[in-house]
Amino acid sequence: MFQTLEARTANDLWKQAAEWFRQDDKSVRQASRNGPTQEVMNVALSLQYPRQRWIAARVPAMNPAFAIAEVVWIVSGRNDSAMLNYFNAVLPRYAGEGTTYHGAYGHRIRSSFGVDQLERAYHALSAKSDSRQVVLQIWDSRIDLPSENGSEASKDVPCNVCSLLKVRDGKLEWTQIMRSNDLFRGFPHNVIQFSSLQEILAGWLKVEVGAYHHYSDSLHLYDQDGDVASHFEDISSPDNEDTLSLVKSESDAAFLMLGQLCDFCANTERSSDEVFNHVSNLHLPAGHANLARVLAADALRRRNAFGQAQEVMQQCTNPCLRFMTQRWFSKPR
Predict the structure, then answer these.
(1) In this predicted model, what pLDDT tens digit does every residue of 134-176 receive, in sequence order?
(2) Which residues of 293-322 are buried (b: 16+ CB within 10 A; e: fewer)?
(3) Start and end of every Thymidylate synthase/dCMP hydroxymethylase domain (predicted)?
(4) Residue 227 belongs to domain with CATH number
């Protein structure tokens, strides 16, 4: 039986899904390779307004700079680990050590199968908007299936399997299929990653953003992370008022600059003044400029340049990103 939820914002979706883990008749005990979990199977979540993708209710607060860096990394088709690890030093604990990540979503989508699937989707839907054949494949059975003795192929086997894209009534509808989804660590980032891709592609296609549908075959919470009450605060962020929808040439140029900024920030030989000046001299569309400010502000925080970090965020015109960044900066350390 499907377990379904629909909400205007990802924050509301997350809060409603979290309530399932307080109900004995919803979640069940389930063993896993990383320890015991509470699990709800066959979950279908619908986000009515994908731009409202930021989840403020999670405790501890999520790092918006890392989430943005992931989006840039995916859009750029990268699989290198160094840049992401800079924004999230504990990531190798979950995804494995090494210079690349086995399950990198952007690399899978944009080059791993010998075709840039995002580019192909753009051309296919531009030519035939009513197509039902546009699927972005992430899972690769050749390298992702467990061995015959059940041992895992990698610490970083993709949780996302594929994306189903359809244009209906002038809107890009997006369905994300997941084999496995951690309510606490995974879902808040996954919804940002793929609803951002949805918004970006909608801009390329010059259509509106439709609903974002998220199917998880196993939505779970690890016992080691504590009960859901310890991860929940009944708050919401202001609305996200920015757009990432640009025509393709402008979008490509903006994400190229954001990728360069990520690498600049991750280079620890760069001083705080250099990071501050770099982001101050970028010329980006408003929504992308605000993403850049969040990235740079976190890089400045990591360099203990707290005054410069706050000065950069004062230039951010998106109240949602200001709220999320302030929550992250205020997290006890």
Answers:
(1) 999 999 999 999 999 999 999 899 999 999 999 999 999 999 9
(2) bbbbbbbbbbbebeebbeebbeebebebbb
(3) 63-227
(4) 3.30.572.10
Angle at 111 between CA 51 and CA 191, to 5 degrees: 20
Both tokens assigned to 318? 């998106």
pLDDT at 313 over 90: yes
Do 178 and 279 lie in one domain? The reply is no
The more confidently predicted of residues 28 and 188 is 188
The pTM of the full predicted model, rounded to 2 decimals, is 0.97
20-40 pLDDT per residue, tens: 998 878 898 898 888 899 999
**Residue 242 within a domain:** no
Cβ contacts of 18 within 8 Å, gap of 6 or more: 57, 183, 228, 231, 232
**Number of CB atoms found within 10 A of residue 272's CB:** 19
Tally the domains of the chain.
Answer: 2
Is 52 within 8 Å of 239 (Cβ atoms)? yes
Is 96 in contact with 102 (CB distance < 8 Å)?
yes
Question: Above 70 in pLDDT, residue 229?
Answer: no
Tell me the residue range of the domain where 259 lies: 248-329
**Considering the domain boundaries, does residue 278 fall inside one?**
yes
Q: How far is CA 71 from CA 35, 90, 190, 200, in A?
A: 29, 18, 10, 11
Q: Which among 8, 13, 1 has a CA at the least distance from the CA of 214? A: 13
